[in-house]
Amino acid sequence: MYLLTKILVSAVIIGIVTEIARRFPTYGGVVAALPLVSLLSIIWLYVQGESSESLSKFALGVLWGFPATAVLLLIVYLSLKQSINLYASIFIGVSGWFVFLILQQNLVNLLKAKIGSLF
């Protein structure tokens, strides 16, 4: 029952956001940019009894994924602007997202190694 409640509440929120986007595309984009999925996830995890430490780690993971998500959205925007098919645009965007995450992790590892060698 609890899983069904989470699904229904989440679906209603997504439905509202898509209706706003259909009627007012710019405002819909702004509302969609709100971290609704992240906030809903934090709330559901909290309600399920997860510790503050676990919630904190989850929030950090969301922050970690944010730059790659910005890259994904930029790629999709630019692809659609060039009249590339929606599904191809999404595929290119997700590919860019994945590549960016790998580059981001490699950069962090490199910086850790450089900083670690200083001490």
Protein described:
By secondary structure, the chain is an all-alpha fold. Helix content is 89%, strand content 0%. It has one domain (35-118). It has helices at residues 2-23, 25-33, 36-47, 52-81, 86-118. It is flat and about 55 Å long. This is DUF3147 family protein. Keywords: Membrane, Transmembrane, Transmembrane helix.
Strand and helix map with partners:
Elements lengths: L1 H22 L1 H9 L2 H12 L4 H30 L4 H33 L1
Helix pairs in contact: 1-2, 3-4, 4-5
Descriptive key words:
single chain, 119 residues, mainly alpha, 5 helices, 0% strand, flat
Quick structural gist:
The chain has helices at 2-23, 25-33, 36-47, 52-81, 86-118. By secondary structure, the chain is mainly α.
User: Span between N and C termini?
Assistant: 54 Å
Tally of separate domains? 1
Give the overall shape.
Answer: flat
What's the total count of β strands? 0
The overall average pLDDT, rounded, is 90
Helix content: over 70%
Task: Determine the structural class based on helices, strands and strand pairing.
Answer: mainly alpha
Strand proportion, as a percent range, falls in under 5%
Assembly type of the shown chains? single chain
Instruction: Characterize the main sheet.
Output: none
Q: How many helical stretches?
A: 5
Element pattern in H and E: HHHHH
Question: Mind telling me the C-alpha Rg?
Answer: 18 Å
Outline the low-pLDDT stretches. Answer: none
